[in-house]
Amino acid sequence: MNPVYDFTGRVAFVTGVSSGIGLATARAFATSGAAVALADLDRPALHDAARQLADEGHQVLALPCDVTDEQQVAAAVDRTVAIFGRLDMAYNNAGIQIPPADAADEDAEIFDRVHAVNLRGIWASMKHELRHMRAQGSGAIVNCSSLGGLVGIPGRGSYHSSKHGVIGLTGSAALEYAPRGIRINAICPGTIDTPMGQDMIAKGELDRAEAEANQPINRLGTADETAQAVLWLCSPGASFVVGVALPVDGGYVAR
After folding, report:
1. Where are the domains of the chain?
2. How far apart are CA 185 and CA 199, in angstroms?
3. Which of 144, 155, 193, 242 is the most exposed place for a label (fewest CB within 10 A)?
4. 72 phi/psi in degrees, rounded to 5
């Protein structure tokens, strides 16, 4: 049974909502009473997600947005505040995975692309969320890192460096904004059963049995379980939690 949060009257902004953890988190915020702005590059999937939530009776706003373009991010956050009047919570989830590669062979274009989405996209999102939260003097931001932000795995150098960067960015901003009433944290999901994970399994980039064995809980996580970690970090229950990189990984990094 999941905890019950009351975010009535609050506004949440979520990136990367087309499926998986992003969609589950947007739905969890909405189910808890928040108005939710949904931002994603994939317009058909974005509007489908918005329709799903609206049909369930939730207050949502669909915002096409490429997080690698700072102007689009700024416009999406500004539009959220213009429509809903404020911004209380943000989950910066948009990210991509790349195929494993030998560190001596990986193309610079792939390195740049994964950092543009996974690190610069979170930087841009957080920057413009903070502009509004700073004026309010309140807010909570959760950035999506990964267990790959806490450990290294052969063949994953570019992806892991982007996720390590998210943790550094989160910690520095958290220290800067905690005195201003804004809490910033990160989550570090392990191997989660999402469309991205299923695609990696189908391509042979991830062995499901090995992934399950590497997580002491002996299974993959779910998007809903990960969403609950985000909601807790945004809730009054986490009011003294600042600057953490919270593993949501079934025990992977505790081994």
Report:
1. 11-245
2. 28
3. 155
4. -65, -40
Catalytic residues: 159
The first and second tokens of residue 8, run together, are 């009535």
> Is the torsion defined by CA of 171, 144, 51, 64 positive or negative?
positive
Pairing of strands 139-144, 245-248: unpaired
**Contact between 91 and 142 (Cβ < 8 Å):** yes
Residue 12's nearest CA partner among 36, 38, 45, 48 is: 36
pLDDT per position as a tens digit, 2-60: 778 999 999 999 999 999 999 999 999 999 999 999 999 999 999 999 999 999 999 99
- The residue behind tokens 């985000």 is 230
Q: What phi and psi, each to the nearest 5 degrees, are found at residue 188?
A: -125, 85
pLDDT digits (tens, 9 = 90+) for 128-175: 999 999 999 999 999 999 999 999 999 899 999 999 999 999 999 999
Please give the Cα distance from 162 to 220 (Å, whole number). 23
Residues making up the chain, counted from first to last: 255
Distance between CA 255 and CA 246 in Å, rounded? 15
Q: Which residue has the tokens 């999402």?
A: 194
Domain 11-245 falls in which CATH fold?
Rossmann fold (3.40.50)
CA 158 to chain centre: 18
